[in-house]
Amino acid sequence: MTKPVWKGYISFGLVAIPVNLYPVEKKNELRFHLLDARDQSRVRYERVNAETGKEVPWDEIVKAYEFQKGSYVVLDDEDFKHAAPEAFKSIDIEEFVDLSDISSLYFDRPYYMVPDSSNKKAYVLLREALKKTEKVGIAKIVIRNREYLTLILPHEEALILYVIRYHQEIRSENEFDFPNEGLKAYHINDREIKIATDLIHEMSAKWKPEKYHDEYRDALMKWIEEKKSTKTTKRKAEEPTEKNDDLIDFMTLLKNSLKNTSRRSTSKDEKKSR
């Protein structure tokens, strides 16, 4: 089992609930190495002293804050803990809010909060109370010397800690040029809206996350295997065809999309009935 990224307590009023944090996400990325193109030798990065040019071993490397050019305050692990000792071991729930009040723009990454005690009563109590009230807890946590804003929410049998972004980390929509005029300005009529909504309804389905996977990863892995066995070196990728939006007949596209979707649905129903 993977190691927890954090161990400590959820502070809920006067109740302290021991928990371990584990990432919800499982990494499934292809890992690549950097090679020297001339002889395919591995490229190695070294940590070197800027003054002497000599390599510095990990156990001699420290963190420091530069308060003015060339002047530093060196910090070790104890210094980070000394700044706010309780923050390293405690998740203090500050308040409870409605999940619907929080924009999806704020959501970053989730962690499982696994109870770290044989007595799980307090854990279950908080989980069920959150379900009953349909609220989520707002709390802060320090992970690897950085403080994060988080949500604590129930998910089936688990409590989830969801790291969310601070308000100042969210870009305003005003920074970008989004279309903000009425439908007439874009020559969109009621019939086009009707066909577009019909298409959405026709394509609507129950969410089944297990049917989706990283198809690009599969295709890339297939190409790697092919290249490994055939020693093929190059294959020109197909360039996407550029389209001029001004020349697109959206009504025709929408109608054809709706027809194609209807055909696929009919075909699926026929197969099920056989």
TrEMBL record:
Q: Which SUPFAM superfamilies match?
A: SPOC domain-like
Entry's Pfam families? Ku (PF02735)
Q: Domain named Ku: which ranges?
A: 53-184
A Gene Ontology biological process in which this protein takes part is:
double-strand break repair via nonhomologous end joining
Name the keywords, alphabetized. DNA damage, DNA recombination, DNA repair, DNA-binding
Q: Which domain of life is it from?
A: Bacteria
Q: Name one GO molecular function term.
A: double-stranded DNA binding
The record's listing under InterPro entries reads: DNA_bd_Ku70/Ku80, Prok_Ku, SPOC-like_C_dom_sf
Which family does the similarity line name? Belongs to the prokaryotic Ku family.
Q: Per its database record, what is this protein's job?
A: With LigD forms a non-homologous end joining (NHEJ) DNA repair enzyme, which repairs dsDNA breaks with reduced fidelity. Binds linear dsDNA with 5'- and 3'- overhangs but not closed circular dsDNA nor ssDNA. Recruits and stimulates the ligase activity of LigD.
Q: What quaternary structure, including any partners, is listed in this protein's UniProt entry?
A: Homodimer. Interacts with LigD.
Q: What is this protein called?
A: Non-homologous end joining protein Ku
**Species this chain originates from:** Legionella busanensis
